[in-house]
């Protein structure tokens, strides 16, 4: 059964408000873009399949609310996630600081093997850039995470970002089954008792 | 769709559909057939239904003896080798076992007890995707016309120096050299026991023939010294007397992939190689081709044996091409279904299969041997063709199901006297009826993609069989990857839309609930309407936040907390804030604010956050006297924020009042206006007035003309709703009280009271003693007041939990006696 990998991965999007998390997801899943995307109040769930050379990867995506007041709810979504996309807005330095704190939080409280990708969104607004690409890149390299600048608006690097994540995800073809076999559920032994 | 990109000059490449028609015309003339299935490279885009290819319908031409009507090929019989509606019988002996898409090891039990197998789900989903893509292959495929030559010869262990060009190159003058040359031999060695068991001779002879073919194809005359005109040997496979070898023109070599061979013996004991098949498969550009060379069971009467041999070779032939190649086959759409963990493909998993060899079918025994001979010699073929066993068996669906064969236009190829062009009739030999033992058939997933240009025999005479050959025009797929990627994207987009549409969806008429100012003892309800706007049943439920056990804060209630909606249905969810003593205490101390986020989760869908907010309008109710004495302002003006509060008020005891001003205000009002009112503390007040009076106390507004019973009730409520009661449990008298010891108990009781509580207690007792002065009119008795005092000054819930009911009762009795004592005597 090694001929085709079947992989499902939970992926969560994190980042400050209005950096374009939902836009990235909508671009990735539906290849659409809306200039005025309503803020996500809650956590949106979408799926998207990505074909790699040797596997089909299905992402189960949780797009979270970026507003500060909902921050404490984020762990509900990044717990158990195989991958996290931390989004910032290249025209907003605060959002980059926010992204760093999200990365820290993930490193501290997320799953041990979570694949983290940092996306500098709104790359189409080069004229208003406030976050230096190299600075972000150095930060990402120092933390061993993926970094790309994306534009949900013109679709630049969106698919590439998810492909890159997919490539770094473990091949879990055997994972689930292996675990099941490693810990077989055996009927409990009845203790023999002499009653007479 | 045709793409104007560079065509390989060596491929017979029509630039438009017109050339196709030309070739059809040519065919119609050559074969005297009129209704060939039309090649259809421009099929309209459609969703595949799985019936992408139907067998072509041959129309019987009455004037021609050469075509056979297969208007409706009956199905059935042992193996059903290929059908997109039936399970292909790959890699299995019986063909009835079915394909298991995923191992049971991948089964997972879901929480609700259903079995889920993600591997199976993914494979089935992928299969659908590839089917959709294949159905649209015209959009991304450039179709090229390639010519494939198939030759087959039972050489009867002969063969020396004779030239093969009259066989292999017979039609080169007419059609030019083909792109692919496939040659099959049978009996290249004697089928004796030694040769069957030991392969030396077979190897030697196969080398001989391969070299001979190569030198024929690549003769100076053919290549004219140009290496690009020469043929490259791709693969050779032999099995005892069987040999199959494939050559391509040199320029095509880079576009050949995944060449693989297989052989199946079905002879002696069912496994020996004296009968069987040797096969080669490969990917030519993006078409998958399979060549099967067989030698089936002999003897005129053994039709069933030949049918069975065919089925065995068909089902047992398996090419181990590995994961990567299988994936490519799947992507090319040549494989209809997947077996679990397969790294091999079977005969039917190819775009085009050519099946040739000494199939050994004869003319039906109903025609006497002599007549067969006579008709054969006179080239009167019609009756013989009608009685050809292979034609009969195929028409009845017993063998070569779905395969096609061109009309027989040549004389039977067996059995000749070697070295002559005479049928074997020598007296010392057994007299045999001539037969078309040597045949070439094909099977195409797209019937229009194969057209037979000719079906001939050669007159080479060294063997007792004549060689047979056929050249085919095969539509070869050349996939433009970028375009296929686009189609893939579109298919995935469509699928994702459906998959995401199958997620539940609801709309909420609002997600922010602002309750405004919420007062003590007031319940405020705001509804949210939830409507199922999706296409599937939506189940919703409120879920606790991570690491929490409750859905919401204690001052909030939500009903219902779960529910189900069918599409279009809506329901109301009520969110209610109610502030009681417990919560007001928390709110008063700022340990709690009226803000919360409630998570509404759609099963299998998204989460919605419902934000709840309000501001607590403080009340003196639910506070403690210790705190109330600190504030000179109305409580509503005292900030909830402890820092602001600390800035505004001096918290040292000297600044504090003796009793809370609220207590003073209400008692003073009763004292002024109703101390003598009849049935004071017995008649209930009006709830509306009670609310208004409390507001006056909280805001500092002056009292209107409220009724005395309402004011009396507010007093009792104020006292009984204090966050800590006036009489702490610690000072309860626990021993029996009698007339002798009551004085000392009373003194001890008062001494033990904390100072503020002492003040309040004295103040209240003094008030009630004043009230008792008017007992004639207000009809109150000390006993009744003692009872009232006990109920509102002493918390009924106080006392240690392990205390017995009896002792609680005793202490209450004691407390009542004590109260009575304070009210009746002048001990304060």
UniProtKB/TrEMBL annotation, chain A:
Keyword set includes Lipoprotein: no
Recorded GO MF terms: nucleotide binding
Keywords: Nucleotide-binding
Pfam entry (one): Ras
Superkingdom per UniProt: Eukaryota
UniProt cross-references to InterPro entries, sorted A to Z: P-loop_NTPase, Small_GTP-bd, Small_GTPase
Keyword Disulfide bond: no
NCBIfam families associated with the record: small_GTP
Protein name: Uncharacterized protein
Organism: Cyclotella atomus
From TrEMBL, chain B:
Cellular localization per UniProt: Cytoplasmic vesicle, Phagosome membrane; Early endosome membrane
A GO-annotated cellular component: early endosome membrane
Keywords associated with the record: Cytoplasmic vesicle, Endosome
Biased composition (Polar residues): 45-72, 82-96
Entry superkingdom: Eukaryota
UniProt keyword Membrane, yes or no: no
Keyword Membrane: no
Domain Rho-GAP residue range list: 638-828
InterPro entries in alphabetical order: Endo/exonu/phosph_ase_sf, Ig-like_fold, IP5, IPPc, OCRL-1_2_ASH, Rho_GTPase_activation_prot, RhoGAP_dom
Principal location: membrane
UniProt cross-references to SMART domains, sorted A to Z: IPPc, RhoGAP
Region of interest (Disordered), residue spans: 36-113
Protein name per UniProt: Rho-GAP domain-containing protein
């Amino acid at each position: 059964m090694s001929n085709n990998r079947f992989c499902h991965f939970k992926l969560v999007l994190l980042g400050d408000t209005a950096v374009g998390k939902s836009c990235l997801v909508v671009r990735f899943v539906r290849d659409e873009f809306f200039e005025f995307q309503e803020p996500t109040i809650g956590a949106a769930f979408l799926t998207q399949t990505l074909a790699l050379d040797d596997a089909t990867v299905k992402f189960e995506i949780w797009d979270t609310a970026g507003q500060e007041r909902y921050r404490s709810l984020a762990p509900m979504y990044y717990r158990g996630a195989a991958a996290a996309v931390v989004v910032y807005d290249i025209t907003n330095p605060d959002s980059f600081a926010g992204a760093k704190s999200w990365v820290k939080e993930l490193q501290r409280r997320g799953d041990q093997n979570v694949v983290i990708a940092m996306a500098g969104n709104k790359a189409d607004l080069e004229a208003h850039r406030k976050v230096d690409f190299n600075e972000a890149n150095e930060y990402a390299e120092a933390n061993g995470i993926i970094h790309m600048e994306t534009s949900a608006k013109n679709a630049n690097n969106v698919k590439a970002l998810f492909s890159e994540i997919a490539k770094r995800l473990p091949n879990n073809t055997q994972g689930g089954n292996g675990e099941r076999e490693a810990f077989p559920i055996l009927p409990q032994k009845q203790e023999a008792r002499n009653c007479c | 769709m045709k793409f104007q990109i560079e065509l390989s000059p060596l491929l017979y490449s029509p630039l438009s559909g017109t050339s196709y028609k030309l070739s059809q015309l040519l065919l119609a003339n050559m074969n005297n057939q009129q209704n060939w299935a039309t090649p259809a490279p421009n099929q309209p885009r459609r969703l595949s239904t799985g019936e992408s290819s139907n067998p072509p319908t041959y129309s019987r031409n009455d004037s021609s003896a050469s075509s056979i009507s297969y208007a409706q090929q009956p199905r059935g019989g042992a193996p059903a080798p290929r059908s997109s509606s039936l399970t292909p019988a790959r890699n299995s002996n019986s063909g009835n076992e079915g394909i298991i898409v995923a191992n049971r090891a991948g089964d997972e039990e879901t929480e609700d007890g259903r079995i889920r197998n993600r591997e199976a789900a993914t494979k089935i989903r992928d299969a659908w995707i590839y089917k959709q893509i294949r159905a649209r292959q015209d959009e991304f495929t450039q179709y090229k016309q390639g010519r494939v030559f198939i030759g087959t010869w039972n050489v009867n262990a002969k063969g020396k120096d004779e030239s093969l060009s009259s066989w292999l190159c017979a039609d080169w003058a007419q059609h030019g050299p083909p792109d692919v040359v496939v040659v099959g031999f049978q009996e290249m060695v004697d089928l004796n026991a030694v040769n069957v068991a030991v392969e030396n001779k077979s190897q030697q002879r196969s080398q001989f023939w391969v070299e001979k073919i190569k030198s024929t194809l690549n003769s100076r005359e053919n290549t004219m010294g140009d290496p690009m005109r020469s043929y490259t040997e791709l693969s050779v496979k032999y099995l005892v007397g069987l040999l199959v070898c494939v050559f391509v023109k040199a320029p095509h070599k880079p576009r050949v992939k995944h060449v693989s061979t297989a052989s199946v013996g079905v002879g002696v004991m069912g496994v020996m190689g004296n009968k069987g098949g040797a096969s080669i498969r490969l990917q030519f550009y993006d078409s998958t081709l399979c060549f099967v060379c067989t030698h089936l069971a002999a003897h005129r009467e053994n039709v069933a044996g030949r049918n069975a041999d065919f089925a065995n070779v068909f089902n047992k032939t398996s090419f181990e091409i590995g994961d990567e190649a299988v994936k490519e086959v799947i992507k090319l759409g040549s494989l209809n279904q997947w077996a679990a963990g397969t790294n091999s493909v079977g005969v039917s998993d190819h775009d085009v299969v050519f099946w040739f060899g000494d199939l050994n079918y004869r003319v039906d025994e109903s025609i006497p041997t002599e007549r067969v001979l006579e008709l054969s010699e006179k080239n009167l073929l019609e009756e013989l063709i009608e009685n050809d066993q292979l034609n009969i068996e195929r028409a009845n669906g017993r063998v070569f199901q779905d395969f096609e064969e061109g009309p027989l236009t040549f004389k039977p190829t067996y059995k000749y006297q070697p070295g002559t062009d005479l049928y074997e009739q020598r007296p010392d030999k057994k007299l045999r009826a001539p037969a078309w033992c040597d045949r070439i058939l094909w099977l195409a997933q797209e019937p229009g993609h194969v057209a037979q240009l000719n079906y001939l025999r050669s007159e080479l005479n060294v063997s007792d069989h004549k060689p047979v050959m056929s050249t085919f025009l095969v539509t070869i797929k050349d996939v433009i990857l970028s375009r296929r990627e686009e189609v893939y994207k579109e298919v995935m987009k469509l699928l994702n839309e459906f998959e995401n549409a199958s997620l539940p969806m609801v709309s909420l008429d609002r997600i922010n609930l602002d309750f405004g100012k919420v007062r003590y003892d007031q319940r405020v309800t705001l509804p949210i309407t939830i409507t199922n706007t999706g296409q599937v049943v939506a189940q919703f439920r409120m879920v606790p936040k991570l690491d929490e056990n409750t859905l919401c804060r204690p001052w909030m209630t939500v009903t219902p907390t779960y529910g189900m909606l069918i599409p279009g249905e809506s329901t109301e969810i009520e969110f209610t804030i109610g502030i009681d003593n417990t919560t007001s205490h928390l709110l008063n101390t700022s340990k709690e604010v009226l803000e919360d986020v409630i998570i509404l989760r759609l099963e299998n869908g998204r989460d919605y956050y419902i934000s709840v907010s309000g501001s607590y309008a403080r009340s003196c109710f639910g506070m403690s006297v210790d705190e109330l004495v600190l504030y000179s302002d109305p409580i509503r003006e005292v900030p909830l924020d402890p820092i602001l509060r600390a800035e505004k008020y001096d918290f040292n005891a000297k600044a504090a009042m003796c009793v809370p001003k609220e207590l003073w205000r209400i008692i003073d009002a009763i004292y002024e206006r109703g101390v003598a009112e009849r049935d004071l503390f017995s008649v209930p007040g009006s709830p509306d007035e009670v609310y208004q009076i409390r507001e006056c106390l909280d805001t500092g507004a002056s009292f209107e003309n409220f009724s005395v019973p309402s004011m009396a009730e507010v007093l009792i409520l104020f006292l009984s709703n204090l966050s800590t009661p006036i009489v702490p449990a610690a000072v309860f008298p626990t021993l029996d009280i009698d007339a002798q010891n009551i004085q000392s108990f009373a003194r001890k009781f008062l001494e033990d009271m904390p100072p503020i509580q002492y003040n309040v207690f004295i103040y209240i007792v003094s008030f009630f003693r004043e009230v008792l002065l008017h007992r004639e009119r207000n009809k109150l008795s000390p006993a009744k007041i003692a009872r009232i005092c006990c109920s509102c000054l002493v918390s009924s819930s106080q006392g240690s939990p392990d205390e017995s009911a009896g002792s609680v009762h005793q202490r209450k009795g004691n407390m009542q006696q004590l109260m009575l004592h304070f009210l009746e005597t002048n001990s304060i």
